[in-house]
Amino acid sequence: MPMADLTTTIFPLIPLRDVVVFPQMVTPLFVSRPKSIAALEQSLLRDDRLVVLVAQKDPECEEPAEEDIYQIGTLAEVMQMLKLPDGTVKVLVEGSCRISLDSLQDDPNHFSAKVTEQQETVQDDLATKTLIRVSVEKFEQYVKSTKKINPESLLAVSGIGQPGRLADIIATYLGLEVAERQRCLEIFDSTERLEYVSQLLSRELELADLEQQIHDRVRFNLEKTQREYYLREKMRIIQDELNSDSEQMGEIAEYKQKIAKAKMTGVALEKAQKELQRLEKMMPQSAEAAVIRTYLDTLVTLPWAKRSRDVIDLPRSEEILDEDHYGLDKVKERILEYLAVRKLAKQPQGTILCLVGPPGVGKTSLVKSIAQAMNRKFARISLGGINDEAEIRGHRRTYIGAMPGRIIQAVKQAGTKNPVILLDEIEKMTRSYMGDPTAAMLEVLDPDQNDTFTDHYLDAPFSLREVVFVATANSLDGVPRPLYDRLEVIRLSGYTEEEKVQIAEKHIIPKLLEKHGLKSRQLKVAAQTIRKVIQEYTREAGVRALERSLATVCRKVATQIVRSDEGAVKVSPQLVSKYLGPAKVLRESEARGPQVGIVTGLAWTETGGETLSIEVNTMPGKGKLQLTGQLGDVMKESAQAAFSYIRSHASQLGIDPGFQERWDMHIHIPEGAIPKDGPSAGIGMALALISAITKKPVRANLAMTGEITLRGRVLAIGGLKEKVLAALRAGVKTVLLPRGNEKDLDEIPDYVKSKLDLIPVAHLDEVLAIAFKAKSKDAEGGKTRGSQRQTARRSALGRVK
């Protein structure tokens, strides 16, 4: 367009933010301001589609005035325009020439201006040609040293011989500030403009070289995948370039003091110092620094040299055990022996006690008493449900959220190197795809190995030689043999009724009174009341249900006192149902008399002894024997052995030898949801079968236990004490037991023996003579004793036709 036309024509104007458009350059723009969009639309109405593009001095200014924009800009042609869904307009413009603003008109809808084209001065001498060649070489070097520019851009500058055009193209590719680009636009002398751009290009080359040097030095010191660490190291090297030394953080000095105070040695000390050096080189806010801090905190808080001073005084220890526990004489005696040996032995012995017994008999409190008697700290580890080896040995620090194993955590919690650690429910650890925790416990409990126990998290040996481990279990059936061999088992049986009464009076009630804010004068509970609660509201080997029942009484009494301001309440046996409701336990042996085909057996479970009601029915059939009640294989075999004995001795028992051809037998043990197994119900099932076949009732208040053979012999069984206590709780008066278990009667308290008639038997003949003997009238209401064990079988049995 001729020069005269420019001076007389008004063009629409668009102020640009952070953008400078050069002549002969195609540039995409995004236009969003209403006035700018209106100016753009106005340019499209023109035949030449020209618009004035001028950069703003302040890009944050939304409504620029004449003083807010530069006076030198570019006249550009609108090539393409596209409206986007958000209202923004994308436009492609091509610069035509440099212009200067003569006047700016701020119309209500858009900006417009009168402009004057600025002509370039061009020099075509040797110096200019040399400058062109040098500038092209610098640009090529810059493109190769940085990845910010596409290498194809070299083709755009290699054939250009005009200094002004070359300067504009290079300025477009360089990442210059808006002020620097505007300065390049305002230089009309092409050679001078190229010199200015060449200076800027030299500066960018130096920055690119320095950045490459920093990058190379960082890569030499770091792993390739640690991008985050690479950025931190890059900042450190930049600080080195600026001769800026970072200040040493105060926490480093604090950690050094803690490490020295912890008195760790050997590998642990080396690990701590190495990790501290790593932490010193890291940025404090990094994730890896937080992991190292957690590790160092764990190391410095472990008791590497701190231990409790043993004070083993047997009279004092015995007093502590008696004060905290009633009964359990043999268990207390073994614990005192254990303490005596530890006091005399110069080296700590490797004995690992394991207290085995039903829930609620005081296993955990016994271990606490051991710790108190030894003047040591106490820590408890619950092993129930653990199926991951890492729970014992700890997790390696490569995992997110890693932590030490339960053993190290317990030592840390205790705060001393020689605590008493309770391994609670050791039999409930299970093996899984994550490992076998019982195998990991072998190293923990072996005195020859635990001196250098290495937790995966610590990655340094920690001595467990001085730790006293005491395990507890309800049963040892699930304990692997190698682990079982490391344990010295002490069995705790259930409490008798008399022992429960004493425990309630001396321990439970005082504790509950304090817990519920009651004084001893406000609540009186007689011994007979406690007995009634035990007999009618609990059926357990321990005292937990008894404690819950008495707690219910305390709550209701407390409510009664608060409501009516009563000074004291005495709970008599008659008032128990008022506080606890109807009786929850029905004594079946007391609720029924002699019955045909029903016998009370005795069983041992993890929770103590239990009574089993064995029922037999006969029905027309062909000798089929049916067994129900979720019986195990061993119990089924016992029933088969009993049935075989009856068939082979039918004539001697007064039974028609052909009974199996006309009758089917069904043996059922109620509570079918509970699995049952073991051989000790053999004589009970044999007696129930004989009673059902002969239609002779079995005397009431009689229970029995013993394995039967095909010859009718009664073999010894286990868990006699628990079974006898279960019989006493059920109200049984007479218990038949194998003669082979007579040696175990010494373990049964005299109080229990005085309440029960314990009759050893060696053969089923003796069982039949006692079970089918009628109760004498003079003994009715009292205790029945079997004194005529050799009564003839045929006098006790009728003959079945």
Structural overview:
The protein is an alpha/beta fold. A seven-stranded mixed sheet has the order 19-20-18-17-22-25-26. A five-stranded mixed β-barrel has the order 1-3-4-5-6. It has a five-stranded parallel sheet with strand order 8-9-12-7-13, with helices on both faces. Strand 23 (about 705-710) and strand 24 form a beta hairpin. Helix 5 (about 165-175) runs parallel beside helix 7 and helix 19 packs across helix 20. The longest helix has about 30 residues, at about 190-220.
Lay out the secondary structure:
Elements: H1 3-8, E1 10-16, E2 26-31, H2 34-44, E3 50-55, E4 72-83, E5 89-106, E6 111-117, H3 126-145, H4 153-158, H5 163-173, H6 178-186, H7 190-221, H8 227-241, H9 250-262, H10 266-281, H11 287-301, H12 314-324, H13 329-344, E7 352-356, H14 363-374, E8 378-382, H15 390-393, H16 406-414, E9 420-424, H17 437-445, E10 453-454, E11 461-462, E12 468-473, H18 481-484, E13 487-491, H19 497-515, E14 523-525, H20 527-537, H21 544-564, E15 569-571, H22 576-580, H23 588-591, E16 595-596, E17 598-605, E18 608-620, E19 625-628, H24 633-648, E20 663-668, H25 682-694, E21 697-698, E22 702-704, E23 707-708, E24 714-715, H26 720-729, E25 734-738, H27 750-755, E26 757-761, H28 764-771, H29 793-796
Parallel strand pairs: 1-3, 7-12, 7-13, 8-9, 9-12, 14-15, 17-22, 19-20, 22-25, 25-26
Antiparallel strand pairs: 1-6, 2-5, 3-4, 4-5, 5-6, 10-11, 16-21, 17-18, 18-20, 23-24
